[in-house]
Amino acid sequence: FSRQNLDHQERNAAQISDIERGGYVLKDCDGTPDAIIIATGSEVSLAMGAAEAMSGKNIR
User: Fold this and answer.
1) How far apart are CA 44 and CA 9, in angstroms?
2) Neighbours of 22 (CB within 10 A)
3) pTM summary value
4) 14: Cβ–Cβ under 8 A, 6 or more apart, which residues?
5) Average pLDDT of each block of 10 consecutive residues along the chain (60 residues)?
6) Which of 14, 40, 47, 54 pairs as cysteine with 59 (C-beta 3.0–4.6 A)?
7) Distance in angstroms (rounded) separating the CA atoms of residues 45 and 32
8) Which residues, other chains included, contact 11 with Cβ-Cβ below 8 Å and sequence gap of 6+?
9) Cα 55 from Cα 51, distance rounded (Å)
10) E strand or H helix at 16, and its extent?
11) What is the C-alpha separation between 53 and 60, in angstroms, rounded?
């Protein structure tokens, strides 16, 4: 929960199942990634924005 107005992150069935393990992938790439972004809580929305910005620059 947060007092901030945060974007909702869509999750598929596999991601929901992985929540029990304590972590899961929201966005993946084809091949080996150039970077791995890890975030929790209110920072997830910022991390997803960073991932989008990086993909626009051919960074996986």
Assistant:
1) 8
2) 6
3) 0.69
4) 24
5) 76 85 87 94 91 91
6) 54
7) 23
8) 24, 26
9) 6
10) helix 13-18
11) 10
Which one-letter DSSP state was computed for residue 7? Answer: P
Q: Are 15 and 26 in contact (CB under 8 A)?
A: yes
Determine the Cα–Cα distance for residues 55 and 58; give it in Å rounded to an integer: 5
User: What is the predicted pLDDT for the residue at 1?
Assistant: 58
Residue 2's pLDDT is what? Answer: 65
Contact indicator for 26, 48 with CB cutoff of 8 Å: yes
* Alpha-carbon gap, residue 28 to 53, rounded angstroms: 14
Residue among 39, 42, 38, 55 nearest 8 (CA): 42
